[in-house]
Amino acid sequence: xxxxxxxxxxxxxxxxxxxxxxxxxxxxxxxxxxxxxxxxxxxxxxxxxxxxxxxxxxxxxxxxxxxxxxxxxxxxxxxxxxxxxxxxxxxxxxxxxxxxxxxxxxxxxxxxxxxxxxxxxxxxxxxxxxxxxxxxxxxxxxxxxxxxxxxxxxxxxxxxxxxxxxxxxxxxxxxxxxxxxxxxxxxxxxxxxxxxxxxxxxxxxxxxxxxxxxxxxxxxxxxxxxxxxxxxxxxxxxxxxxxxxxxxxxxxxxxxxxxxxxxxxxxxxxxxxxxxxxxxxxxxxxxxxxxxxxxxxxxxxxxxxxxxxxxxxxxxxxxxxxxxxxxxxxxxxxxxxxxxxxxxxx
Length: 346
Ligand code: SAH
Ligand code: SF4
Hints:
The protein is of the alpha/beta class and 346 residues long. The protein has helices spanning 10-18, 22-40, 78-90, 106-120, 141-149, 164-169, 177-190, 207-220, 237-240, 248-265, 275-280, 284-290, 303-306, 323-326, 338-343; strands spanning 45-53, 94-100, 131-135, 154-156, 193-196, 199-200, 224-225, 228-229, 270-271, 295-296. α2 (22-40) packs across α10 and α5 (141-149) packs parallel to α7 (177-190). The mean pLDDT is 93. It binds S-adenosyl-L-homocysteine and iron/sulfur cluster (SF4). Iron/sulfur cluster binds next to loops. S-adenosyl-L-homocysteine (SAH) binds at residues 56, 62-63, 99, 101-102, 135, 137, 157-158, 160, 199, 230-231, 233, 276, 311-312.
């Protein structure tokens, strides 16, 4: 396939995704990188990732911290979360992301509310207070409201797959695609910059499914997207079915290609270079940036706990040390999506 033949409709996107020509992929990534620099600039924004807990009430069939997996569980104390946020402030990351397994108990909800208020009060010198993104799964609308009022302004909730049939195949029967979608619309209506995304290269997933994921991001009008390759975890039901899925090399290539295609489809959004890329290639996130992504989430979870946040196999320990020397970093800023700012007239 030739880059000049690429069309950004369902058929064209699916053909580009299915294409296994390395020269096409390289040309596509190069073009997407140029579009990124021209549209949102060369800067990469950092979000210090704090993995607050691997306790989860859900049982997603692909996930290594699902409820039914026997693994060491942990929950960071408020002091530990705040210490990590202070590190983010000192290093002028601009923002943090608090991510974790889904919990709906009152104690956890109140803890997040207190943390949000405390993080917003951290002294950042001349920079704005830290921006906070939450990624804590599906919650009742009132909880999303409470957290928004306490200072969270972005929320990341992946649709995981925009194809309801595939969604059903990778989740237990008590998980609902419609509820997921409702949660995404609740977040949006409350005023969050609502990010979503899907896994790439899953069992049962077709090129058309992936094309539909890209079109879903566009139609949902998401200001930010965090998508990444599926990485099998050996003890999950999805892996144990033995259903085939693309090789590591192919999933990595697909991960970069999806970033590049999305940058062409919606040029002014924030696109994260996911941690899952780094598991497949030691410079995975940097290659994500060179394919059109503009957000990186350096992990600032205390190391002893980070290793237990085992969503998938071979999750390596990651620090931002080397990578920030090789990219242009937008230090001390929230790095909100240009797309969202344009829409909201500020
Ligand atoms: N519990 C929250 C946030 C933590 S999970 C939630 O589910 O939204 C964060 C993301 O990890 C999920 O959205 C999922 O896309 C990803 N993930 C889980 N298992 C994975 C796997 N085996 N390979 C790749 N990504 C995975
Ligand atoms: Fe829980 Fe999120 Fe894993 Fe699902 S993907 S089991 S909600 S941590």
